[in-house]
Design goal:
312 residues; Arc Repressor Mutant, subunit A; D-Maltodextrin-Binding Protein, domain 2; 5-stranded mixed beta sheet; 11 helices; 21% strand
């Protein structure tokens, strides 16, 4: 294995090349002259070539010495840059962060918070992944993601979470035409005609829990892959649906003939940030959770970060 010069040796030789005097170079490096002379001699022995012409009264670098000092300075600058960059990365919410988010949160939350999040943490390099909850949690446990924005409750295993706020549901239905009878709230909440997302979307289970649906749904019941599709189906008179407040506040009903009736007695879903249990970045993720909650404009839920255990 090739023996390499040390940064200490290169720094001492660079100081000598700059000062052109052993005494002044030693003073600049805060060491004795004998120590600096020994360091330069070690570097010459390691490289096998003379770097300083000692036959003249004035200190002169040899041609190889000029090359070594130029390349040595580049190495020192690269090493110093490495230290500065890693020091910056140690600051909270700086450097790369891989964030996963579910489809029923991402399109409605991220546009309103990302610009301000970037201004608050300009050194943060955020890489986003949108996917279903189970796949996001799998990627989280495998180390492909650092943290994820999900909705609780969810049977997720042992992870750490910070609940950000509660996201209540509203019943979405088409406004009856003039003269037509208006169905009761109970009729509109009939699970057999309620339009929901496809299996795999946690919002489906949250919506069923919100309306306390315990009756079997038809085998041919329509299931959508996005909240926007649900809205279009309801707007075309196919049925009713439940939407979280986050989507309503983002204007998902704009341009439709639909009405939203809050369900204050229904169980809300809980927006949460989750990360691997035991990670050394837990403090950083709690800071991110607090910032997302404050930027969202919603009241922060009283729950604090905790280990989430399976619910079923």
């Amino acid at each position: 294995m090739i023996q390499l010069p040390t940064l200490r040796q290169l720094r001492h030789f660079a100081a000598l090349a700059e000062q052109r005097n052993f005494g002044r170079a030693a003073h600049a490096c805060h060491i004795t002259q004998s120590t600096l002379s020994a360091s330069v001699a070690e570097l010459e022995a390691l490289l096998g070539v003379p770097l300083v012409d000692r036959t003249t009264r004035k200190l002169v670098l040899t041609p190889m010495g000029e090359q070594v000092v130029e390349r040595g300075r580049a190495i020192l600058e690269a090493a110093e840059s490495l230290v500065r960059d890693t020091a910056e990365a140690r600051k909270p919410l700086s450097g790369p962060l891989r964030l996963g988010v579910i489809p029923t949160i991402g399109p409605f939350l991220l546009p309103r918070i990302l610009p301000r999040l970037r201004r608050a943490f300009p050194k943060l390099k955020l890489y986003l992944t949108e996917d279903l909850t189970d796949r996001l949690l799998e990627a989280l446990q495998a180390g492909r993601l650092d943290t994820v924005l999900i909705a609780l409750p969810y049977d997720s295993g042992a992870i750490e979470t910070a609940v950000l706020w509660d996201d209540p549901f509203s019943l979405i239905y088409q406004v009856p035409a003039a003269g037509e009878p208006s169905p009761s709230l109970a009729d509109r909440l009939d699970p057999s005609t309620l339009l929901l997302l496809r299996d795999g979307h946690c919002l489906k289970n949250h919506a069923l829990a919100a309306c306390r649906a315990d009756v079997p749904r038809p085998l041919d019941a329509f299931e959508a892959t996005s909240l926007h599709t649900l809205v279009q189906m309801v707007d075309n008179g196919i049925g009713t649906t439940l939407l979280p407040q986050l989507a309503l506040d983002a204007g998902i009903l704009k341009g439709t003939n639909l009405k939203a009736t809050p369900l204050p007695a229904a169980a809300p879903r809980h927006i949460a940030l989750a990360w691997r249990k035991g990670t050394g970045r837990a403090g950083e993720f709690r800071l991110l959770a607090d910032k997302i909650a404050s930027l969202s404009g919603y009241a922060q839920a009283p729950a604090s970060s905790k280990a989430l255990r399976p619910t079923r």
